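Backbone-to-sequence.
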């Protein structure tokens, strides 16, 4: 039952109107109730409406008086949050950022590394507690994946980098396992010459795939030898390449590329265990890493490699070094150590080395910024 007319404030009137709306009742526009010069109204209130007014006068909020269901209150709170965000963002000025044209004078080169294949090595799952498995068939699958990823990653990078018209592939040795230890004569899947023959077919096929599918004008292959490819008992200095199966494999592959008419290729095959390639006016060293010793103490392999780099950088005027040999991916401002195709082995596990999946490395050189990106090239 409605009571007599009473005078209420504008806030109280708004609360009464919201209550009537929630019940689906019509309400009289406030201007008909306005009385006097102040913002107050005269109206009749039912008992529930009177309670709402009383609560407001005791300090309760308006929204707490509405008889909403749980779903209605959730919707109300969501709408209130949206309105709050709108009110807060009303003072933010959004301006348009225009696209900037690429610098036509800048260019970039992706550098891919390939090393430590150890093609004829056999790793049984049980020998590394299920962490890896390896044999010539798996090696071929991983190498095929590598060459596909060279094209894939280059194509992806060309969307972001201007002037990427060439590729560098650094082959850093240990393509075969060889018979350099007595144990390997017992465990290898095939003889060194059989492994060299297979590697010729696989690498030549992979290079042809890159030649035919990568949208570049030039592919530079830097080819250096590892310690496992040697035909001598110990690694030698003066005739390092003359005693390496891998050196003559590289020469043979270069000749075959010429015979097949693969004109994009340019090979760098030095009569030395290291090669220097100049890119954007700076000198970069490619070597297997055979001469770097140590790495078992605090800091791991990074410490002896840094010492080696500091010495060789002064002698040869290089700014960066690419190496393999250690089967671990490590990158810093001085050098990039490549991973391995063979992956985790009993030798690595027996020496407490960190586990690393089969992977190779790729980075991008920019003509202005230097090294601007680094990627692992996964093989499985």
């Amino acid at each position: 039952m409605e009571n007599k007319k009473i005078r209420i404030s504008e806030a109280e009137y708004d609360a009464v109107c919201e209550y009537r709306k929630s019940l689906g009742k019509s309400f009289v526009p406030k201007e008909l109730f306005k009385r006097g010069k102040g913002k107050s109204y005269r109206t009749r209130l039912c008992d529930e409406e009177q309670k709402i007014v009383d609560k407001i006068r005791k300090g309760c909020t308006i929204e707490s008086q509405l008889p909403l269901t749980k779903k209605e209150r959730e919707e109300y709170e969501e709408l209130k949050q949206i309105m709050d965000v709108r009110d807060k963002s009303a003072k933010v000025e959004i301006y348009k950022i225009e696209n900037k044209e690429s610098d036509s004078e800048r260019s970039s080169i992706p550098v891919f590394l390939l090393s430590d294949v150890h093609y004829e090595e056999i790793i049984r799952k049980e020998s590394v507690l299920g962490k890896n498995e390896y044999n010539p068939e798996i090696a071929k699958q991983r190498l095929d994946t590598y060459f596909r990823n060279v094209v894939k990653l280059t194509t992806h990078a060309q969307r972001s980098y201007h002037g990427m018209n060439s590729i560098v592939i650094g082959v850093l040795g240990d393509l075969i396992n060889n018979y350099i230890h007595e144990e390997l004569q017992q465990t290898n899947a095939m003889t060194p010459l059989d492994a060299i023959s297979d590697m010729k077919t696989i690498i030549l096929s992979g290079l042809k795939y890159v030649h035919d599918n990568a949208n570049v004008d030039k592919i530079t292959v830097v080819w250096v030898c590892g310690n496992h490819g040697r035909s001598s008992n110990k690694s030698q200095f003066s005739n390092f390449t003359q005693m390496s199966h891998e050196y003559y494999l590289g020469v043979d592959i270069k000749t075959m590329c010429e015979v097949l008419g693969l004109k994009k290729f340019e090979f760098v095959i030095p009569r030395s265990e290291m090669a220097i390639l100049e890119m954007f006016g700076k000198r970069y060293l490619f070597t297997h890493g055979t001469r770097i010793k140590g790495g078992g103490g605090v800091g791991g392999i990074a410490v002896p490699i840094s010492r080696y780099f500091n010495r060789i950088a002064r002698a040869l005027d290089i700014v960066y070094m690419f190496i393999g040999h250690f089967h671990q991916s490590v990158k810093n401002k001085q050098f990039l150590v490549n991973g391995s195709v063979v992956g985790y082995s009993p030798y690595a596990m027996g020496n407490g080395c960190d586990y690393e999946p089969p992977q190779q490395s790729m980075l991008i050189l920019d003509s202005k910024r230097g090294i601007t990106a680094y990627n692992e090239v996964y093989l499985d």
